[in-house]
């Protein structure tokens, strides 16, 4: 019976964590470039249940031969193993703002990998994002809404001087006759990226390469546009309701075990 407590409780914890991930997706449904998280549920190893018995042998001494009879498997619970970002591209929306840029995927090797804008982090390392909701700071540099510098393909800040500049489809910024290519990174294994908030990713292992110098990688940059979040609001709401119902079912099972334990201790135990 105690094992039933742990099984039901593990189900409640797993559903709660999945609900938190879904709630975060819903909260970022309108965040440009946001990539939704998908929960991966796993079950703990099953336990093989056996019944221990003994058969009496018709002998003078009355021998008893022990044996085990298999009853079947017992699942010992479930857990949320990890949350994996969905790197599918979101819809492209026109904003009419010159500092907004949308990175549009073209052909990628074997249909794998992903493309990102490169921005500078406070620790001096590069970060990667699909959120092209940029602006210009007081010194004329292209920055994110949080004030972090957008980098070119050499890893340097981009001085646009003001709000009046043009971006070609290949990601080249034209400023008073000078061309500066945006830093577009190609990452072959997107699963090596770790979310850091602010729609940023940190590369955990491997390396990012210049997308322009990578064979078979094609992309385009659309100025005055933004990539929307890839969260499906309707599907997420349905999953949230299902998760809540699953949580309630585990809660009822836990309550039933608690009531049975109460009777075993306070009623049956008192009668014996």
TrEMBL record:
Biological classification of the source: Bacteria, Bacillati, Bacillota, Bacilli, Bacillales
Pfam family, one: Flg_bbr_C
Domain spans labelled Flagellar basal body rod protein N-terminal: 5-35
Keywords: Bacterial flagellum, Cell projection, Cilium, Flagellum
Sequence ranges assigned to domain Flagellar basal-body/hook protein C-terminal in this UniProt record: 222-266
Compartment(s): Bacterial flagellum basal body
Principal localisation: other
Homology family: Belongs to the flagella basal body rod proteins family.
This protein's name: Flagellar hook-basal body complex protein FlhO
Superkingdom of the organism of origin: Bacteria
Annotated ranges, domain Flagellar hook protein FlgE/F/G-like D1: 112-174
């Amino acid at each position: 019976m105690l094992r039933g407590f742990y099984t039901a409780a593990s189900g409640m914890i797993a559903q709660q964590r999945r609900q938190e991930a879904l709630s975060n997706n819903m909260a970022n449904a309108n965040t440009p470039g946001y990539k939704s998280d998908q929960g991966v549920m796993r079950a703990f190893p099953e336990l093989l249940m056996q019944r221990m018995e003994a058969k009496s042998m018709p002998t003078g001494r009355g021998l008893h031969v022990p044996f085990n009879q298999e009853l079947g498997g017992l699942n010992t619970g479930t857990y949320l193993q990890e949350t994996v970002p969905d790197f599918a591209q979101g819809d492209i929306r026109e904003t009419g703002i010159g500092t907004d840029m949308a990175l549009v995927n073209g052909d990628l090797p074997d249909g794998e990998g992903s493309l990102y804008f490169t921005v500078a982090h406070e620790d001096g390392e590069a970060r990667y994002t699909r959120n092209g909701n940029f602006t210009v700071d007081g010194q004329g540099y292209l920055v994110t809404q949080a004030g972090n510098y957008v980098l070119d393909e050499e890893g340097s800040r981009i001085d646009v001087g003001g709000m009046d500049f043009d971006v070609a489809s290949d990601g080249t910024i034209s400023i008073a006759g000078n061309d500066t290519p945006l830093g577009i990174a190609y990452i072959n294994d997107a699963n090596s990226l770790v979310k850091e908030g602010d729609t940023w990713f940190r590369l955990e292992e491997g390396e990012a390469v210049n997308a322009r110098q990578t064979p078979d990688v094609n992309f385009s940059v659309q100025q005055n546009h933004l990539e929307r979040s890839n969260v499906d609001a309707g599907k997420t709401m349905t999953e949230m309701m299902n998760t809540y119902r699953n949580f309630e079912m585990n809660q009822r099972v836990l309550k039933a075990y608690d009531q049975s334990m109460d009777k075993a201790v306070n009623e049956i135990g008192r009668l014996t």
